[in-house]
Every structure is written in C-alpha cells, then in structure tokens.
Amino acid sequence: MSRSNLPATHREVRLAARPERALDPDHFAVVEVPVPRPGPGQALVRNRLMSVAASLRTLMRGDAGMPMPSFEVGRPLSAPAVGEVVTAPEGGTLRPGDLVSHWAGFREYAVVEADAVQPVDLTVLPDPVAYLSQGPSAWIGVVRGAEVRDGDTVFVSGAAGGLGTLAGQFARLRGAGRVIGSTSSQRKADYLVETLGYDAVVLRGAGPIEDQLRKAAPEGIDAVVDTVGGEQLRAALALARPGARVGLIGALSAQVSGEDTAPVEIDTYSLIVRGIEVRGVSGARHRDALAEYPETFGRWLREGSVTVPHTRLSGIDQAPRALMELLEGHHIGTVVVEL
C-alpha cells in the first residue's frame, strides 16, 4: 500500500479514565484520528494483529512501578502487535510489505522507530500469533525459573493463560515426567488435559488448593512455574520437595484487580531446611536464555510438538472487550485481536 492509497483516518483505543477496580467500557475510548505521518528514521506500519495481557491492566495505574511507563489518560494504549510496513526510511533495512512486530498496538496504523521493530520471519516461527505469544516468558520460566529436569513433577499455576498453556508444553518437552496445572473452570481443565496433555488440574474455587494439589502430586513437586501468586503459590511451596525450584513469572492474583503488590505469607525456615530455591525471573534479566528459543520453538511448531492456543477477536473496537474478558478469565491461551 503506497502513501497515496492510505485512508485519511484510522481508529485507535485510548485510556479514557484510570480504573480503580474492575475494568469496564467507560475506561476506554475508540476514536477516529488522522493517519499519522512518520518522521526521520521512522516507519509507518499497518497493524494486522495485536495481543492483550494482564500486565496492561497494571500499566493503567498512574504508579505502575514497571520497567515501562504507565499509560496516560487521553492517549492511546500500547500492546504487542504485528503489522505490515507501509513506508520506511530510505537507506534502511525495512521495505514496504515487510512484516514486523512492535509495541504500538491498539491502533490500526502506527508510526514506529525503524530500528526498534523486530522482523516477523515466518520461516523461523511459522505463525504470526507465535510472535505475539508469551512464549519467551514461558521459556524463561521453565528453563531459568523452574529449571525443569528429566522426570520432574511440575506445577504451572494459571495454566490456561497465554503463558501457562505454553509453559506446560515446554516443561513436557524439557523432560518433565508429570505436569499439573491450575485454572478457574472445568471447561479449561478439560482442555488442558485433553488437548495440551496435562496430567492433572486443580480448580480455583473447588476447595483448598493445597488439598487438591496434594492429591494430584502425592509425592510432592520438583519445579514450579508460578504466574498467579497468592494461595496457589503457598500451596506449591507447601508441596515442594527438597531441592525444588520455584520460578515466579507473574502475579495474576494482583494484576486482575489492578493491584501492584501480591504478598504471600511463607515459612522461610521450612524453605531453608528443604533447600527450596525461589526466583523472580524476567526476560530483561535472562536475555541469554532466549538465544536458543526462536529456533527451538519454531522447530517444535513445525513438527507439531507445540501449539499456540489462542482466542481471536475481530476489529479494533473489540480490543477493550478482549482485555476485559481476559482479566475475567473467559479465554484460553493468548488473546489476539485482528485489526
């Protein structure tokens, strides 16, 4: 698409008000504005897909305390997106028609710094949704946080989410002998067992998590990929075997309500005696662990050893709904919006 063929306007989603508790449609505004013009060193991208994640809810706070800045009221939201380059700086490596990923979702057209986008190479990861997945976080959680080893019994909390659906698969391919997940409904539990190969699932709201987990893992747990915190983390620590590794990769128990803390009462003496290792892990601190990720993930995708479970909504006006429903636990896997 050339500049001369561009529409005069496009739509973007703005933060209309900072939420105090649960999100509702009044916190968003879908507005029509002129298609932006890139400046020196910038590219114009027609977004095709974007994803939403629980961390976006935290960024809606004025004091998110995260590595990236909070969203501003009256300004567009941001999220991972895949789009097609419309115009690119002369003399650079980008060309019109190239597919790229970036962080300027929630809008149909985006101006991005040309040297900040990532190429979307479908010969490496054969599905654009894979570039929007939480695969890197799941990989780091399994490889560096939980250090999954052959024969391990692994517990993945929030197993039906975008991160959990991949972490369970990664754990199995890394040699786990038994994989247990947690989720919020029987529908999701059935999917985890029947489609993703989880051995057992504990259900939030179906009784104490520790009691359920003890039945699912009578000999204890060797590795934990925790995306939730709260009661589920306490239960996992109670069942952790001597020498177990616990990777903290998310805090959904706080994020779904917009809180910025997720306190958990733990018995530190018991952890010391059993030699339990608890680590907070993030991609920013473990970039070296991602060196083998694209090739390995891509090979598993092509072989059919791994899938990227996802829910797809259509139209930028559905982006607020996608985020609200994700936080309410309606969907399985990565939640993407076609723009």
What does this structure look like?
The protein has helices at 55-59, 128-132, 135-145, 164-173, 186-194, 209-216, 230-239, 252-255, 268-274, 293-303, 319-327; strands at residues 9-15, 28-34, 42-52, 81-87, 99-102, 109-113, 118-119, 153-156, 178-183, 200-203, 221-226, 240-248, 277-280, 310-314, 334-338. β11, α7 (230-239) and β12 form a beta-alpha-beta unit. Strands 3, 4, 5, 6, 7, 14 and 15 form a seven-stranded mixed β-sheet that branches. The chain is an alpha/beta fold and 339 residues long. The protein contains eleven helices and 15 strands.
Provide a short characterization of the protein structure:
By secondary structure, the protein is α/β, with parallel strands linked by helices.
Which characteristics define this entry?
single chain; 339 residues; alpha/beta; seven-stranded mixed beta sheet; 11 helices; globular
Secondary-structure topology with pairs:
Elements: E1 9-15, E2 28-34, E3 42-52, H1 55-59, E4 81-87, E5 99-102, E6 109-113, E7 118-119, H2 128-132, H3 135-145, E8 153-156, H4 164-173, E9 178-183, H5 186-194, E10 200-203, H6 209-216, E11 221-226, H7 230-239, E12 240-248, H8 252-255, H9 268-274, E13 277-280, H10 293-303, E14 310-314, H11 319-327, E15 334-338
Helix pairs in contact: 3-4, 6-7
Q: Roughly how many Å is the radius of gyration?
A: 21 Å
Biggest sheet character: 7 strands, mixed
Q: Mean pLDDT across all residues, rounded?
A: 91
Could you list the spans in which at least 5 consecutive residues all have pLDDT below 50?
none
Bin the strand percentage.
25-35%
Find the count of extended strands (DSSP E, 2+ residues): 15
**Helix and strand composition category:** alpha/beta
In which range does the helix fraction lie?
25-40%
Distance between the termini: 16 Å
**Regarding quaternary structure, how should these chains be classified?**
single chain
Order of helices and strands: EEEHEEEEHHEHEHEHEHEHHEHEHE
Number of helices: 11
Label the overall shape.
globular
